[in-house]
Amino acid sequence: MNIEDFINNMTLDEKLDFIVGPGLPGQFGNDDVEVRGTVGIIRGVKGLPDIYLADGPAGLRIFPDRENNKYYATSFPIESMLASTWNRDILREVGEAMGEETKEYGVDVLLAPALNIQRNPLGGRNFEYYSEDPLVSGEMAASFVEGVQSKGVGTSIKHFVANNQETNRMKIDTIVSERALREIYLKSFEIALKAKPWTVMTAYNKVNGYYCSQSEYLIKKILREEWGFDGLVMSDWFAGDSGAHQVKAGNDLIMPGKSYQVLNYRIDEREEIKKGLNEGILTEEDIDEAIRNLLNLVIKTPKYNNYNYSNNPNLDEHAKTAYNAALEGIVLLKNNDVFPIKDKKVAVFGTAQIETIKGGLGSGDTHPKYVINIIDGFKEKNIDFDEKLYNIYKNKIEELRKEKYKPYHNDLGHTLYPRLPQNVIDNISYYADNNDLAIIVISRISGEFFDIDIKDFYLYDDEIKLIKEVSKEFRKRNKKVGILLNIGSPIEMATWEELVDGIMLIWQAGQETGRAVADIVKGNHSPSGKLALTIAKRFEDLPSLPFPVNGDEVIYDEGIYVGYRYFDTFKKEPLYEFGYGLSYTKFEYSNLDIKKDNEKLFISFNVKNIGGFPGKEISQIYIRAPKGKIDKPFQELKGFEKTKLLNPGEFQKINIKINIKDLSSYHEGWILEHGQYEIRVGASSRDIRLIEKIDL
Ligand code: GLC
């Protein structure tokens, strides 16, 4: 296609139909679309095909029922669990699987990955984000994007930028320093760009006074001019307040368009742009620039290239990919001889053994063919569990679901299951007599549109009562108690962790949850996940308070001191630190060797499995900069690598390259201070195994 000729032959109305979507074709009850669940369309003008966009980060969010067939898409682990694998290969494999499903189900762009920073554990979309750290976020996103796009469909790195709370998200103004923007909130997107995502989705919120979708500074100056992004920029759905300012700022595509169709607070954006032309807000050249970016995207899509999609992706293969991702994302936080349970007989408490949460709600939701819940996984892997206890839970849930606890759709289309009561068991001592140990499952669900209620951050009275009674009865008989956390974002643990002997963070692992959890609990595999966030002892210890802010603006006064950057610099003790996770084996680090040229550091060291169980180790490189002109965090993660599966006695030489310029700080430009830098090789941010100093 000759892009310029094509543009020269377009009328203004055709250009505007291209820039502004037709509304919500496949959602909220509308069904005039080929692929049900499609959430946005780039209108085919002048003979071009309609281009389909669909969510999301945990799997292709399409509705299975179409042409009286069932087209299921795989439900993968949530992003906060994928990040806990710290394994770029896993993210790439998940990306390849989702990319294939996107292509084979007739969708052109997958609206993922989301890589906003998890600034506070109450963030409603934390399950959909990777980490508190920009390097982990950016690296996971880059590998995922490479995977998806290797299948010939597009991605959208979102939400650009600093969309870290759901409360008042469409309007709230995020007041944040240039340094914090550059080093934290923009940094994950800057890193992800190396994978050349086809599109970027601008965020709902404002940053320092301007809607992200209307910010020339963010889109034109930083994203395009400084970083050289030459793909398409689209708005989030119904974002901003002026189509004219969006196009002027370089936001090429306005989604979903026809706002009046769903939210009647705005006129059609096409009218807004026309008005903007007359008022001189923007010019026809601004519009043509958007058209150029749109055409460059369209000609890459399967739809434009007449790809005859099969509606038959390899779902069995992808289920294995989802299982492997879940297996490597599980994080063992505490283990006083509880796990693995091997052939012991276990009493499983908690309704989430059956009502296992597979993921979060909203655009990040998925509609899989099945979900293997925890107890199904135990059955399949021949874990011996107390049937009597299970049947009490099963009957109680059926009874509750019949009367009181019906799922309900809140006004935003969420299917919310109210929390089920936990104290459904009378005489726990009976189960303590008849089983070797206890496992209690605690679950939480969250979703788009809402931040997590502080009540959900703490255990409920019935959960505390259950843990206390189980702990009392089983410990009286010198038997252990383990906790499985089926959550998408950290909850409070410090007040009760002494009552239990083991805590396993199983996150929300998608359709294969039960299988992966059972394999780790039984001991068929060792856990190998680590935290990509900090678990604080107390909510009050967090630097991002008050959260969420229920007003017109939120001030990020903690600046760059987000997560471990705060806890390490200001000497706050977390309950479980960034980068932490236990294994069924032990690893030894040795032979640190550092070389450098004038651009890179070349760091190598050996990791050896010195325990009795095969396992994978995640090693991390933290850099501590010298005191200089500006304040710096105590240390910052600048590299990481996960080993292959190491058998007992086996070791692997790890080589990590770090660009020296990536050690600089932002202070009216990037500056790297002279002096002595400490290279800290750790099994976590606080379990540093090897240290060397170098002068830079
Ligand atoms: C939603 C989300 C965005 C999603 C889009 C389409 O509101 O913010 O992540 O891709 O709208 O569903």
In terms of quaternary structure, the protein is single chain
Question: What is the C-level CATH assignment of the largest domain?
Answer: Alpha Beta
Q: Strand share of the residues? A: 15-25%
CATH superfamily of the largest domain: Glycoside hydrolase, family 3, N-terminal domain
Helix fraction? 25-40%
Please give the alpha-carbon distance between the first and last residues.
Answer: 50 Å
Please outline the major beta sheet: 6 strands, mixed
Present as ligands are: alpha-D-glucopyranose
C-alpha-based Rg, rounded: 25 Å
Please give the number of β-strands: 29
Please state the average pLDDT score: 95
Strand order of the largest sheet: 1-2-5-6-8-11
Q: What would you note in describing this structure?
A:
There is one protein chain. The chain is an alpha/beta fold. The protein has three domains: 3-298, Glycoside hydrolase, family 3, N-terminal domain (TIM Barrel, Alpha-Beta Barrel); 315-530, Glycoside hydrolase family 3 C-terminal domain (Rossmann fold); 585-695, Immunoglobulins (Immunoglobulin-like, Sandwich). It contains 19 helices and 29 strands. The strands form eight sheets. Strands 1-2-5-6-8-11 form a six-stranded mixed β-sheet. A six-stranded mixed β-sheet has the order 12-19-18-17-13-14, with helices on both faces. A four-stranded mixed β-sheet has the order 10-9-7-20, with no helix packed on it. 56% of the residues are buried. The mean pLDDT is 95.
